[in-house]
Amino acid sequence: MISAFTQGNIDYFIYITQPEGHINSKYPDYVLKLNKALYGLKQLARIWYDTLKEVLINKLKFESLLAEGSIFINRSTGIILCVYVDDIAIIGPNQEAINSFINSIKSYFKIKELGLIKDYLGVEIDYRPKDGYLKLY
Length: 137
Fold this sequence. Notes:
By secondary structure, the protein is of the alpha+beta class. The protein contains 2 helices and 11 strands. The radius of gyration is 19 Å and the shape is elongated.
């Protein structure tokens, strides 16, 4: 699982008032134009999703499912991504394919690897490497 959020690129103008405690005394009525997403924006989740989708589809050759836009598949590598807000669950045929994807996405985003998934959206995951199956609760 990896996590990222405020790395979204803004392709339209968003202005904010100067933050309290950081108001320019010479220009107190000026506003700030954002170049990157900022926590607290109503648009933050959409900006991040649009930025991530652009990279996944146009750079890393993933497809988005028509029935569920938060699931992406790369048929040539066998990698499936489940995106939920700022988390990405990675499902792959083997650890090598997953590591390759992680290295690829690192060239576009700063990420934090959170290790194996223990639960995802309320589903507990139990790994059974001996028989090759996952047990979901």
